[in-house]
């Protein structure tokens, strides 16, 4: 068994190294567009300009030579329409103080180190139950994680920090480091890790204490960032709201509907609105419908998390469900969905227990990992472009959803499946603790 684990570790490191190395070559071609957004937004604030004001940010962006020749409209919007939360400035500021040539490689190294550590920790937990299942899902996940290293999105750090925090809390090791990791992930992308944080609040006991400690750190960061922003740009809130409205309007890059600039690409939005919008492209319809479905599921999840007695196996089931449901509530993209690596230990546990749920668990989890993967979405996007599907009929709409919105469907099935397992009361725990 020791040899098997060593071989698995070597393979995982090799896959991770290959993905990172490929990102080193493709990153300059893509221009690290997502890191450019947070880098120049923070640099704008450091130079005493309002990063939420398009004209001021665009002036800094051009003056620093950040604009690339032949830059696409979607790339330009992603940079100059700054929409990240203010607390992200605190984290990015040390990078933005450095020249671009140094900072983007340091950022790249930060993503690579944190994300790979998170993957290894999750694999190690899952391997206690089923080494084969944990190894297989981890390899597929790593293989489909290239976008982190090509675009430099903050999700690579946020997902990694969140997963490390979960491991620290559930394994009762390096707890203070876990508190800090969860605080930082909340500060940078609260919509990615907010429900993971909520689980530990609902679980009660020492877990609630740790979650509240994380919130305190995040709050201090948030107040500091808001004071800094308000001193430099007193009207930043109105500008921020304007950017959010523009970037989510019809034709914007964050719009969930099919008319979005990225609506038929591999970096498409993966929330539930994105799937529903194929049937009726009207935010007055797809937003309430999505909130109703997700709200009902999350209400059931929250009640179960609050009233059930905490245990590690139940925690992994709860996190497996909410990591998928989180992606459906509001705006998220495939790189955010890598948070579903939290389902790997739960899948391995169900597989080790045996019974009728083992194959559905593996298939649902594998589908979630595959259909939120970079290569899968890129291939399906190319197929969709070449097919020229007629979307006027119901069958055409269903086929369109399956080709350009498979991530939303896979995440919904995955979230519901693990919620069903979490709600079951037939046994005190789905499986026993690992020995």
Model description:
The protein is mainly alpha-helical and 435 residues long. It has two domains: 1-245, no CATH class; 259-435, no CATH class. The chain has 21 helices and no strands. It has helices spanning 2-30, 33-46, 54-63, 73-80, 87-96, 100-129, 131-143, 146-151, 155-171, 175-188, 190-203, 205-232, 236-248, 272-279, 283-307, 312-329, 343-353, 358-371, 374-387, 394-404, 406-423. Residues 430-435 have low confidence and may be disordered.
What is the rounded Rg? 21 Å
Helix and strand sequence: HHHHHHHHHHHHHHHHHHHHH
How many structural domains are formed by the residues?
A: 2
Biggest sheet, open or closed, and with what strands and sense? Answer: none
Mean pLDDT: 88
The span between the termini is 14 Å
DSSP summary: helix tally? 21
The shape, in one word, is: globular
Stretches where pLDDT is under 50 for at least 5 consecutive residues are 430-435
Topology, number of strands:
0
Strand content: under 5%
Computed structural class:
mainly alpha
Helix content: over 70%
At a glance:
This protein is mostly helical and 435 residues long.
Compile the SSE list and pairings.
Layout: H1 2-30, H2 33-46, H3 54-63, H4 73-80, H5 87-96, H6 100-129, H7 131-143, H8 146-151, H9 155-171, H10 175-188, H11 190-203, H12 205-232, H13 236-248, H14 272-279, H15 283-307, H16 312-329, H17 343-353, H18 358-371, H19 374-387, H20 394-404, H21 406-423
Helix pairs in contact: 1-6, 1-7, 2-3, 2-4, 2-5, 5-12, 6-7, 6-9, 6-17, 7-17, 7-18, 9-10, 10-11, 10-12, 11-12, 11-15, 11-16, 14-15, 15-16, 15-21, 16-17, 16-21, 17-18, 18-21
């Amino acid at each position: 068994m020791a040899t098997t684990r060593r071989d698995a570790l070597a393979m995982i490191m090799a896959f991770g190294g290959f993905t990172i190395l490929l990102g080193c070559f493709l990153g300059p071609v893509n221009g690290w567009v997502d890191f450019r957004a947070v880098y120049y937004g923070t640099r704008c604030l450091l130079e005493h300009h309002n990063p939420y004001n398009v004209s001021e940010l665009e002036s800094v962006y051009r003056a620093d030579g950040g604009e690339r020749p032949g830059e696409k409209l979607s790339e330009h919007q992603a940079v100059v329409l700054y929409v990240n939360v203010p607390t992200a400035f605190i984290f990015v500021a040390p990078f933005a103080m450095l020249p671009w040539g140094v900072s983007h490689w340091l950022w790249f190294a930060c993503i690579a180190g944190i994300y790979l550590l998170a993957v290894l920790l999750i694999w190690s937990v899952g391997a206690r139950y089923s080494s084969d299942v944990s190894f297989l899902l981890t390899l597929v996940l790593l293989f489909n994680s290239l976008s982190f290293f090509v675009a430099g999105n903050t999700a690579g750090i946020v997902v990694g920090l969140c997963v490390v925090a979960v491991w620290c809390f559930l394994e009762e090791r390096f707890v203070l480091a876990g508190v800090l990791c969860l605080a930082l992930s909340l500060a940078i992308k609260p919509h990615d890790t907010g429900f993971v944080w909520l689980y530990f609040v609902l679980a009660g006991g020492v877990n609630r204490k740790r979650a509240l400690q994380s919130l305190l750190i995040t709050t201090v960061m948030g107040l500091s960032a808001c004071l800094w922003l308000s001193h430099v740009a007193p009207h930043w809130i109105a500008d921020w709201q304007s950017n959010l409205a523009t970037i989510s309007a019809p034709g914007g890059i964050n719009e969930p509907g099919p008319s979005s600039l990225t609506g038929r690409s591999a970096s498409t939005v993966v929330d539930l609105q994105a799937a529903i919008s194929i049937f009726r492209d009207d935010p007055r319809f797809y937003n309430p419908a999505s909130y109703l479905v997700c709200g009902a599921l999350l209400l059931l999840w929250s009640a179960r998390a609050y009233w059930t007695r905490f245990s590690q196996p139940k925690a992994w089931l709860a996190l497996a469900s909410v990591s998928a449901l989180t992606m459906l509530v509001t705006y998220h993209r495939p790189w955010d969905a890598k948070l579903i690596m939290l389902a790997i230990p739960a899948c391995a546990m169900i597989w080790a227990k045996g019974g009728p749920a083992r194959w559905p668990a593996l298939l649902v989890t594998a589908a979630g990992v595959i259909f939120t993967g970079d290569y899968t979405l890129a291939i399906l996007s190319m197929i969709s472009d070449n097919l020229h599907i007629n979307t006027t009929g119901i069958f055409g709409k269903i086929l369109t959803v399956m080709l350009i919105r498979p991530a939303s469907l896979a995440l919904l099935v995955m979230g519901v499946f693990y919620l069903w397992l979490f709600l079951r009361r037939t046994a005190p725990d789905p499986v026993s603790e690992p020995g």
